[in-house]
UniProtKB/TrEMBL annotation:
It comes from Paenibacillus terrae. Pfam families: Glyco_hydro_1 (PF00232). Belongs to the glycosyl hydrolase 1 family. Keywords: Glycosidase, Hydrolase. The keyword Glycosyltransferase does not apply. PANTHER family: 6-PHOSPHO-BETA-GLUCOSIDASE ASCB-RELATED, GLYCOSYL HYDROLASE. GO terms for biological process: carbohydrate catabolic process. This is Amygdalase. The lineage of its organism: Bacteria, Bacillati, Bacillota, Bacilli, Bacillales. GO terms for cellular component: cytosol. The active site is at residue 386. InterPro entries: GH, Glyco_hydro_1, Glyco_hydro_1_AS. One of its GO terms (molecular function) is beta-glucosidase activity. It comes from the Bacteria.
């Protein structure tokens, strides 16, 4: 079949997931508790509460999560049971023709507390089996070292990433998995959506926001420690796996000025820089000039150790990956009633865009803009590591799940990817978020579904966990078969 205009023949089509949302088996084979195991779901509470929990964790919640007798509902502890069903799930991915599968390694399966000196062999064996199963089906693993699931012990005993000791623990973890899987995994990502520490410091850096005396200081000190850890992981990866490619990842929170008022334009630039800062350091190897004023206005005095600047300079990422779901508007004088409440970071409603069931503003052309923006900025290969739409899919009496809205969403975004490639962007892969229904990261719901495959599980964990193909399953299969020509 003639290759589609724009997409290269070796383009990595696939899907993405996270260990903390799919694996389950939280207390099996020596795994320790992670920060993802703290989040609860209560159907009696409204959506605002679920999102507030994602953005602000309390000391009481952490304490209760550590109590083995707690009766709270912790959905991420059960996931969709990928731990026991990985072969079935990988067969489904292979049936769709996946070229790659992006997932993560659960840090607490390898080092249950995070500060051990010897890894947990049973945890290592699990990922051996997963990667072998993927490779046997011709699916390239794309692996994040950590995806919002650092060991909870590193929060309670060390205070999270504000403690520089975590660099040592993370690098030991990275070197361990690089060495173990050097013949199985060649695509790696260090930290998932590192720029989100500014929005949800607990899941990104292990910082408990409640009653925090100097939150901004600890956010950016934690980010610095993660930058160093990421750079050292890049160094180790290149040394241990010479043919590897290792990248960074940001959540691309695309912003438009709400009006052409210069105040809105400047506000937009200011807010964008707060996100770009995280990829700037990892892709360019230094702190941009604009960070001096940013830190001053936030009251941040960054502490660096001798040699830190050289570590950042000498160990640049090979590619930049991004998650992209929506866009926002930035306003210097926003009317709070005009806020788009469903957006993860607020933002002002855009009258030209539709919204998803969860209030996320759908903006396919924004993806083209985002890709051009990133490639112009870094001139490094790009990889879309997340893109998708959550919805409450319904199964018909005959067993079919018609998710035309998902097909429409993905189709329009893939069209804009093609346009970006024609614009000159070096885009080498795309992994649609959540190919098999999983637990939502932000709300801990099972009913917020992204997948091409339906999982029979409700928000309280009831259901058979059986897998059923949705209408989008065959659609995406044709997209991959045709190299993006048939949409």
């Amino acid at each position: 079949m003639e290759q589609a205009k724009g997409f290269p023949k070796d383009f990595l089509w696939g899907g993405a997931a996270a260990a903390m949302q799919i694996e389950g088996a939280y207390n099996v084979d020596g795994r320790g508790l992670s920060i993802s195991d703290v989040f609860t779901f209560d159907p009696a509470l409204d959506k605002k509460h679920w999102l507030d929990q994602w953005h602000m964790m309390t000391h009481a919640q952490v304490k209760e999560a550590l109590d083995p007798n707690s009766t709270k509902n912790y959905p991420k502890r059960r996931g969709n049971d990928f731990y026991h069903r990985y072969e079935e799930d990988i067969n489904l991915l292979a049936e769709m023709g996946f070229k790659c599968f992006r997932t993560s390694i659960s840090w607490t399966r390898i080092f249950p507390n995070g500060d051990e000196t010897e890894p947990n062999e049973k945890g290592l064996q699990f990922y051996d089996k997963v990667f072998d199963a993927l490779l046997a089906k011709g699916i390239e693993p794309v692996i994040s070292l950590t995806h919002y699931d650092m060991p909870l012990y590193l929060v309670t005993e060390y205070g999270g990433w504000k403690n520089r000791k975590l660099i040592e623990f993370f690098v030991r973890f990275a070197e361990t998995v690089f060495t173990r899987y050097k013949n199985k995994v060649k695509y790696w990502i260090t930290f998932n959506e590192m720029n989100c520490v500014k929005h949800h410091p607990f899941v990104s850096a292990g910082i408990i926001e409640e009653n925090h005396p100097n939150l901004e200081q600890d956010k950016y000190q934690s980010a610095h420690h993660q930058f160093i850890a990421s750079a050292l992981a890049v160094k180790a990866c290149h040394e241990i796996i010479p043919n590897s490619r290792i990248g960074c990842m940001i959540s691309y929170l695309l912003l438009y000025p709400n009006t052409c008022n210069p105040d809105d334009v400047l506000e937009c630039q200011k807010e964008e820089r707060v996100s770009f800062f995280f990829s700037d350091v990892q892709a360019r190897g230094y702190y941009p000039s604009y960070t001096a004023r940013m830190f001053k206005e936030k009251g941040v005095v960054l502490h660096k150790e001798p040699g830190d600047d050289e570590i950042l300079r000498d160990n640049l990422v090979d590619f930049v990956s991004l998650s992209y779901y929506m866009s926002n508007n930035a306003s210097a004088t926003a009317d709070q009633h005009a806020k788009a409440s469903g957006n993860l970071i607020g933002g002002v409603k855009n009258p030209y865009l539709e919204q998803s069931e969860w209030g996320w503003q759908i903006d396919p052309k924004g993806l083209r803009y985002a890709l051009n923006n990133l490639y112009d900025r870094y001139q490094k290969p790009l990889f879309i590591s997340e893109n998708g739409v959550g919805a409450t899919d319904q199964m018909s009496p005959d067993g079919t799940i018609n998710d035309d809205y998902r097909i429409d969403y993905l189709k329009k975004h893939i069209e804009q990817m093609r346009e970006a490639i024609e614009d000159g962007v070096d885009l080498f892969g795309y992994t649609a978020w959540g190919p098999i229904d999983m637990i939502s990261a932000s709300t801990s719901q099972a009913s917020k579904r992204y997948g091409f495959v339906y999982v029979d599980q409700d928000d309280l964990g009831n259901g058979t966990l059986n897998r059923y193909k949705k209408k989008s399953f065959d659609w995406y299969k044709k997209v991959i078969e045709s190299g993006g020509e048939v949409l």
